[in-house]
Prior knowledge:
There is one protein chain. The chain is an alpha/beta fold. It has helices at about 5-10, 35-40, 55-60, 85-95, 110-115; strands spanning about 30, 50, 75-80, 105. Strand 1, helix 2 and strand 2 (about 50) form a beta-alpha-beta unit.
Amino acid sequence: MSAEEFLEEARRTLSRVEPHELAGLEDVLVVDIRPHHNRAEEGEIPGSIPVERIVLEWRLDPGGEHRIPGFTADTTVVVLCNEGYASSLAARDLQRVGLPKATDLVGGFRGYAEAGLPVRQGATQAVT
């Protein structure tokens, strides 16, 4: 299977969120998996939580002992990366660990910022 086919397969399970739809979602956890240097240079979505990709499934397993607080298995989790590719794969993996409403942001952070939506400068320390 090619990388494009792998991505297409992952996206079949997602109800992807357009940037302008994000603010209207209720009971949502926005998770930023971009590297620190991207967040430092470009900023972050206000209210988002940066989580290192390497620990994502452990920190967002709704029944796991290493989970971060503030969400349940019923929470909509919107994952974002730079442009909306790696986030699709990550969201699919979160569905597999018990978050059926996990999805990602179309266009990633860059699509969000290009739409003129609010951005906070700097980089928050990521959950590791």
